[in-house]
Write a structure and sequence with these properties.
Radius of gyration of chain A: 20 Å
Number of domains of chain A: 2
Helix content of chain A: 40-55%
Number of strands of chain B: 21
Strand order of the largest sheet of chain B: 7-6-5-11-10-9-8
CATH topology of the largest domain in chain A: PH-domain like
Largest sheet of chain A: 3 strands, antiparallel
Shape of chain B: globular
Order of helices and strands of chain A: HHHEEEEHEEH
Strand content of chain A: 25-35%
Number of helices of chain B: 16
Oligomer: heterodimer
Distance between the termini of chain B: 11 Å
Helix content of chain B: 40-55%
Structural class of chain A: alpha+beta
CATH architecture of the largest domain in chain A: Roll
Strand order of the largest sheet of chain A: 1-2-3
Largest interface: A-B, 32 and 36 residues
Shape of chain A: elongated
CATH class of the largest domain in chain A: Mainly Beta
Largest sheet of chain B: 7 strands, antiparallel
Number of helices of chain A: 5
Chain lengths: ~160, ~525
Amino acid sequence: MEDTDTALTRLHPNHVKATRMVAFLSAIPFVVASMVLEAADILPTGLFVIPVILAAAIIVVRVPLRRYQARGYTMSGDRLRVVRGILFRSDTIVPFGRVQHIDVDQGPLQRSYGLATLTLHTAGTHNASVHLPGLAHEDALTMREEIRSHIRREAV
Amino acid sequence: MSEAVAARDENASSKPVADPRRTHPLSFAVSALQALQNAIFPMVAVFFAMRDNPFAIFGALGIGLLIATLSAGFAYLGWLRFTYLVGDTDIRVESGILSRAARSVPYERIQDVSLEQKLFPRLLGLVQVKFETGAGGNEELSLRYLSDAEGERLREVVKARKDGGVETGEAVEIAQEPEAEALFAMDTERLLTFGVFEFSLAAFAVLAGLFQYAETFASVELYDFDFWFEQLSGSRGWMASLGLGAQIVSVLAGLVALLVVGSVTGLVRTVLRDYGFVLERTSKGFRRRRGLLTRTDVVMPAHRVQALKLVTRFIRRLFGWHGLKFVSLAQDSGAASHDVAPFAQVAELEPIARAAGFAIEPAEGTQWQRGSRKYRIDSAIINLITLGMAATGLATGLWLSEAASPAYALIPLALGMLLAMREMWLWRFDRNALDPRYFFVKRGWLAPRLDVSSRIKLQSVEIAQGPIARRRGYATLKLGLAGGKLDFEGLPVERAHELRRAIIESISGTDFSELAG
């Protein structure tokens, strides 16, 4: 019923830009390396540069969008549902009554896009911390307050 | 509860707290003994290094004396500077010879207090007190060593403080709990039976280690087959002269020896670990005592038990022997779960499970369910394909290199078929059941294991699907369990969602803090 049928809330659109930026930054060394190999003239022209640039383009442009589309969350009265993954789908529900503590983190890049990551910590060994990145910072703070009001006392 | 806390806080500020105490003076003697142990190896090393020198023995003794004096000195200083204080709201420990470290552990955070007696401390009547907070490993607070009585008193103090009952630390008597009820105990006969079933070849590993030493000293190649061949059948050739019958007899004798050594090893290890095993239900929880040389005494609060594990092995199962473990956040000498009845009949385990608020059988009318049939076929096919590819690779390699007949590739192929058949067969024995209070997972054919978790004590529920699983409509259910792992692969998607919905409903009904009640 509700845990499968309700539509998922999308993350903030800036999340795509942020993940693209991360992908772009990590692709740079590979592109540079392929250009260096190209300049060394070992193999026919373009054998290094073309595949590497193509792969980089896919990783920077397409993958973040697909992952963004695959991600989502639902916050209902007493639980948070987090869905993620393109190939390997994962669909996690954390009841607020089992949250031990809550983090709202912002990296420098996330900060420049006004984003934040909400992390719920549970006492379970599996899913000890459930991360939800790509929320608008104010939303993350509101969600934190909302969840905190459900935790009556932090035990353990 | 909150009034009680406030009242205690007031007390803490108004009343002068108790004096800091030191550990038992004899604990210094234990440290000194350990220091002597540490000195032995350098002594031997020095002796060997100087063995051509007539004064070698004095050099070795000198080094030993130096090390022993130094470590004894440090042990004494460490003892002098280590104090603990049983306060009104927490236990404080100050330590450090040059640098000082102070740690405070509030009573609310102490999961349980365990007492451990190793051989030397036990002879001296000392005990190591450990406060389990769930921090794990070296972060746990431990007092080495206190007298038996002081350890027992501390445990009572902590228990009483956690319940917010007693006010003054010094006045707490060692209240012998009258209602302690023995749930499970192992007599000598049971212990010996258990020992025989714990057949172990660990002794041979030790022997192999000794062989390696002997090899270096005696410069004999013990793994050299020719050496043994010569010894056995060489110049004298006594074995060859024995004739076929005697050879068969000697092989049989070897097997019997293997069996005897394995059983004796198992027996010795079991007796050392589980001698005098007693599990009691006290007013605060479960108390387990066991051990011959190292005696341990562990208390687990009943509400901290998160799940049960019912385990067995192939041969002992034929005689109905099972073991029961409790899963909790606290650690039991390195293992994640506590042995509460290592060797018992199911009828004996049932009351223990009930005492912990669990059951080992689903309630009436609950159906055991298997995984998805598509999952069964897919996992068999995946096994077959993986090893089939390996076989193809091997066949091509052998054919190209002509190193050996490509027919050898049939071996991985046969292995793949075997694994696929195993997957098809074992699927029948992986089952799950959800009754109104518990979730049961049963796995395995010859030695089935049963995991029982309480629905309301789970922390989160995840449904995971890989690319094949999504196309074929099955999923893995992963449950967040405090102190353990619980998942079920290859559930039909509808069943996975149904289970999740039911479990989440149960969880949402109770807050985490109510679980401790």
